Model the fold of this input.
Amino acid sequence: MKYTLDTLPVLDAYKTGCECPLCRLHILCEDSYVDSMLSAAYMEPDCRVKTNETGFCTRHFGQMFERRNRLGLALMTHTHMKEVIASLESILSGEDGARPGLFASLRGSAPAEGKPQKIRRRMAGCVICDQVTQSMERYAYTIAQLYGTNAEFKAMFEQSKGVCLPHLALLLEMAQKTLPASQYAAFSKALSVVTLENLRRVEGELEWFTLKFDYRNADKPWGNSHDAVERSINKLMGACVGSEAQLPPHND
Done:
């Protein structure tokens, strides 16, 4: 196998045996970008232009706040806030979009963009979200390509625990865009089989978790159901609860 900057992380994620290797990659990417944003990167002119204009979402502001470099975060937040104030001055001093009349509303006519919509659009971006999205698209592309070209990875893929539903959609989308029709058909079939098989497995473990609260099952073994609630939620929504959603430990 030819190892690249994208194939190595993909292989490592699949070797962990986790419920969704792409969720694992997402968390590692997120952690890396949060760290890099608070390293020397925040002093780079290109980086500051992006952070000043785009800013960060609630989640990533929170993650940066928990790290040690409060000065770096303060500097980025200050210059971003100055740009936001300048934008708000323009938005708030302008006119609201025309309000549609009753008949226009009934016809489903879209109202002109008003101040609330402009404010929401101004604050909707996140530099780290954009970086993570680009990385995840590359990893999805790598997985689709490896499945059709590498026997070792193909076996690893088919023996895995599948992926979560958001990453199922991402893999199918990327494969559809980049693979020839015959390769897409084979990849799509294999992905469907491994995903449904493992969704049924987790659903069964979740059911047993609920049945364990029946006194008649009190002395029966839990099996793999102790964390079935967390794994079920993560299968449906992507890693968001429990140990699978935690960032790597930090000393800061």
Summary: Residues 181-211 form the longest helix (31 residues). The chain has a mean pLDDT of 91. Residues 205 and 225 are 5 Å apart (CA to CA). The chain is about 65% helix and 0% strand.
